[in-house]
DNA sequence: CATGTTAAAGAAAATCATTTTCTATAATGC
DNA sequence: GCATTATAGAAAATGATTTTCTTTAACATG
C-alpha cells in the first residue's frame, strides 16, 4: 500500500497531512516490523530529527482508528505495525519483530455460529523468520 | 479445569497456595470472562473483602507464566481470562466480555512454512454472544 | 496568493496503571 | 513445633500515556 493512498484516506477523514505525519508514516510503513511508540520515535529521530513523541502517539491513535495500524501484545508490551485495512493475518518474528502479512483466510468464521455472532477475527502466527533462523543456526554452530 | 488441578500445578512450580490466591483464583475461574486486574480485584472484594490489588497483579503474572491466563488487548486495555494450558482458540463477546473456548484447531500452522518457523499461533473471534444478541434485539424493539 | 479558521505540534505537567520496596505473616518441609 | 522462605499488603516509586496550553501551519475560500 503506497503512501499516496494512505494520505488520501487520512484526507477523507478530515485529518491534515502535516510534514510530521508524513515523516512518521513513511518510517512506520518502511520499517516492516512492529514497534512501540517509543521505538518508532527513535527510528524517526535517526533520519529526521525532532518530531515529538506525543505526535507519534497521536498518529498511531489515528491510524488505529482507521484500521491502518494493528496492535500486538508481546510479553506485556504493546507494539504496532502498519497495515492495509483489508482483512488478513500476520506472522510475527519473535527475534527481529518483522511482520509478514498472510492474505489467505480460511473464512472459518461461519463455523462458529453456535457461540454467537462473529463480527471479526484475527489470527497471529509467532515464530522465527527465515532470516533469523539462519542467524540462529550460525550462532549455534559457533558454540563449543 | 478444576481448582485442585490448578493448585497442584502451582505447587509443582514451587508457588505457595495461600488463602488469598485461592480466593482470587476461584473468582477468576468462575467469572468466565476477561477482566482487567482492577476488575478482578473488584469482583474479589464483592465476595470476600480485602485482598490487595498487588496480590491480584502477582497472581495474574504467575498464571500467565504458567500458561493459565491469556491476555487480550481490547481498545487499548489489557484483559486476562483464565485458561487451561492446552492449545485452543477463543470467542470473546464485545458486550459482556464473556469468553468461550474453541477447541477445534485447523492445525494450519504447517501451511505457512514459507514465512519461517511457526512456534505457536492464536486465533481470536470477536462478536456478540447469544445472550447479548437477545438483549440487543429487545433493546432495538423498544426504540421509537 | 492573501486571509481566516482550525487542526495539529510540542513542551511541560498531570494522570494512572503497574512495579518495587520493605516489614510482618503464614505456608511449607522437616 | 520450629526454621526457612515465599508471599501479603501498604506505601512509595516508576514510567508510559494522556492532557493542557500556546504557537504554528494546513487547508478552504474567494
Ligand atoms: Mn498487516
Ligand atoms: Mn481459554
Ligand atoms: Zn526475524
Ligand atoms: Zn455477551
Essential attributes:
DNA-binding, Dna Ligase, domain 1, binds manganese (II) ion, 5 strands, alpha+beta, Arc Repressor Mutant, subunit A, three-stranded mixed β-sheet, 2 domains, 144 residues, two-stranded antiparallel ribbon, homodimer, binds zinc ion
Under the CATH scheme, the architecture of the largest domain in chain A is Orthogonal Bundle
Q: Give the overall shape of chain A, derived from the CA principal axes.
A: flat
Number of strands of chain A: 5
Provide the succession of SSEs of chain A. Answer: HHHHEEEEEH
Question: What is the CATH topology classification name of the largest domain in chain A?
Answer: Arc Repressor Mutant, subunit A
Q: Using a beta-carbon cutoff below 8 angstroms, give the protein chain pair with the largest interface and the number of residues from each chain.
A: A-B, 34 and 34 residues
Spatial separation of the terminal alpha carbons of chain A: 46 Å
In this entry the ligands are: manganese (II) ion, zinc ion
Helix content of chain A: 40-55%
Strand neighbour order, sheet with most strands of chain A: 4-3-5
Total domain count of chain A: 2
Protein name (chains A, B): Zinc-specific metallo-regulatory protein
InterPro entries (chains A, B): FUR (IPR002481), Fur_C (IPR043135), WH-like_DNA-bd_sf (IPR036388), WH_DNA-bd_sf (IPR036390)
GO molecular function, one term (chains A, B): DNA-binding transcription factor activity
Pfam family, one (chains A, B): FUR
